[in-house]
Amino acid sequence: MALQSAALLPSAFSLHKEGKSNASLKESCLFGVSFSDQIKVDSTLKTKREFGSRKSAVVRAQTAATTAPTFTPAAAQGKKTLRKGTAVITGASSGLGLATAKALAESGKWHVIMACRDFLKAEKAAKSVGMAKENYSIMHLDLASLESVRQFVENFKQSGQPLDVLVCNAAVYQPTAKEPSFTAEGFELSVGTNHLGHFLLSRLLLDDMVKSDYPSKRLIIVGSITGNTNTLAGNVPPKANLGDLRGLQGGLNGLNTSSMIDGADFDGAKAYKDSKVCNMLTMQEFHRRYHEDTGIIFSSLYPGCIATTGLFREHIPLFRLLFPPFQKFITKGFVSEEEAGKRLAQVVSDPSLTKSGVYWSWNKDSASFENQLSPEASDAEKARKVWEVSEKLVGLSD
Ligand SMILES: NC(=O)c1ccc[n+]([C@@H]2O[C@H](COP(=O)([O-])OP(=O)(O)OC[C@H]3O[C@@H](n4cnc5c(N)ncnc54)[C@H](OP(=O)(O)O)[C@@H]3O)[C@@H](O)[C@H]2O)c1
């Protein structure tokens, strides 16, 4: 698997040369080897940028807020001033999540709650990027444990803070794993963490968003080009494919059923891509069920190929060495963590990105546009089924 991934570097070229895709190499980003999502752009919404073995997880009650959010009082002359928004970001201790937290905190308009599994790492990370204490707090959340998710939600509700934006960003990627590993409740780790953990979290926090008086409430679930088979990157094997969901229905436990959603043999890279398809389907199902009644804006995005993040930590050293320069100098699809953070921060708060049910991407000039999802990632019937099966798995329905 590892060597297979490294061997993907040249395959990016051959696909392009053969002209089997309408993507330009410059605009591409393979993950296996990731390329940017500028394929099949049907509308270009230029935006004004506001910002330049079975594992058991121990649920720790170490939830703590380093600071309380501040609220801006109404201005003296009876003018209403928009209070600071409160945004919860999962996996904000590194990479995209941290860069987004930083961008929002620096804007002065947001209090960021960093929902992280490693409290000390998150605190160090916030300090390392110079986030001012009054602009963030940290709460413990391990998405690989549904009990931890429920504990987080209870702690959040008890804190009395409003919830204006929820960003489901955390993820694990195990491209070289030979055997599946599992969440505390026994679900394959990638889908269990990236999809089921976030599914329960966002369902349990939806009420809080409904109650918020913030004018532009948003629920964002980070997607990926790699789950979209209408792109070059999405066609790098193993391709995402949820099949008839038989593995998901069986609980992904690897015992009496497969650990993979489609019921096939375990493949760590595919499990990640499948989890991203679930993320994008979940966003659309949220939109279909709740947007009209609640006004909440539901979105997903592909932030670009951020080749330097910890997401690739389990890849072979050769891949980690070659991937960033390959993206920078060959494909030119490389996006820095800072730039990707600004993009996600845009989806959180830019007044022009208020259309719900959208999967955002950015072109080479860093202008956002509404991108097309693959047939599977935009299949309404599959979205409904994934939602219903996931509800059962996380204990929201019988
Ligand atoms: N990098 C790319 O090129 C790329 C491209 C497209 C989409 N994305 C998406 O961007 C998002 C962020 O990824 P990244 O590239 O920034 O990777 P990253 O630096 O590895 O960040 C992932 C974060 O998720 C956290 N996390 C992992 N398991 C968790 C768990 N069980 N509970 C709570 N948090 C957990 C990690 O926490 P620790 O710090 O404790 O490990 C880390 O903070 C993901 O959704 C990914 O799919 C990335």
Automatic annotation (TrEMBL):
This entry carries the following GO cellular component terms, namely: chloroplast
Q: Which Pfam families match?
A: adh_short
Key words, A-Z: Chlorophyll biosynthesis, Chloroplast, NADP, Oxidoreductase, Photosynthesis, Plastid, Transit peptide
The UniProt family comment states: Belongs to the short-chain dehydrogenases/reductases (SDR) family. POR subfamily.
EC numbers on record: 1.3.1.33
Gene Ontology biological process: chlorophyll biosynthetic process; photosynthesis
Would you tell me the protein name for this molecule?
Answer: NADPH-protochlorophyllide oxidoreductase
Pathway membership: Porphyrin-containing compound metabolism; chlorophyll biosynthesis
Q: Which reaction does it catalyse?
A: chlorophyllide a + NADP(+) = protochlorophyllide a + NADPH + H(+)
Recorded hits in InterPro entries, A to Z, give: NAD(P)-bd_dom_sf, Prochl_reduct, SDR_fam
Q: Where is the signal peptide?
A: none
Location of the protein in the cell = Plastid, Chloroplast
Q: What does this protein do?
A: Phototransformation of protochlorophyllide (Pchlide) to chlorophyllide (Chlide).
GO molecular-function term, one example from the UniProt record: protochlorophyllide reductase activity
